[in-house]
Design a protein that fits this description.
Elements: H1 3-15, H2 19-27, H3 36-51, H4 57-70, H5 72-75, H6 79-91, H7 95-108, H8 113-119, H9 121-148, E1 154-159, E2 162-167, E3 172-182, E4 185-193, E5 199-205, H10 211-229
Antiparallel strand pairs: 1-2, 2-3, 3-4, 4-5
Amino acid sequence: MTNQELCDKIDALYNAGEFEEIVSIVENLPEKEQTYHILFVLAAAYSDLSDLGDDDFNTYHYKAIKILKKIADQGENDLNWLYLIGRTYFNANFEEYAIEYFEKINRICKKDPDLDNYMNLNYFVEKCQKYLYERTLTVVVVTLENAAKDKDLTVESIQGNHINLFFPKYNIKLNIAISDLRRSGACLEYTISYPDNAVEHYKFEGYGHTFENGITDALNRFITEVNNNLAKHYKK
C-alpha cells in the first residue's frame, strides 16, 4: 500500500468515526511510515475518543497531546494542528494552555471571519477566559483573605475580567483587572481605594509553574508593595 493509499484509508476511517481502528493501524506502522498527516489523524482519533467519555479519558488526551507535540515543528503554523491541540487541552480542562493556541489562530486569521466562525474560535476563547477568571477568583479570595486577616472580605461584583472586592476591616475597596492569560499566570492590574479617598494603581505580571502559581505570584508582589504604603493612609 502506498503512502497516499494509506492516508486515504486513514481519512476514510476517521470520517466514519472508526477511531479505534485508526489507532490499531497507525500504532503498528513502522516509524518511517508515520508521516505528519498520519500522526495528525492519529492524534485527532485519540482526541475524539477522549471526547466520547471512554474510561481512558485522561490517557487518550495525554496520547493526543504527546503525538501533537511530536509533530509540533511541522504543525506550529498549521491552523488545523493549532486548533486540535487547543481543543484537546480545552477538553482536558487545561484552559490556560488551550487559550494560547486559540489566540494564536486569532492572530493569524483575524482578517478571515469565515475561518473564525468555522473553527468556533470565539466560543473557545470566551469559555477559556470564563474558566480562567473563575480560577483566578478562587486564588484571589484565599490569598488576600489570608494576607489581610479579614474573614469578612466580600466579592462585590465580577464584570468580565474585573473583580471588585471590599475589605470591611480596613474599609478598602479593590478592583482587579485580569489580562494576558497564559499557562504561567496572567497580568493583574489593581486599583485600591482607601478611606481617606486616596486611590492607588498597581500592575504586576505573575509567573509560575502552573496558572494558579502565577496568579499567586502577582498577588504576593502586590501585597508586598501595598504593605509598604498602607500606614500612610491611616492615622496612628
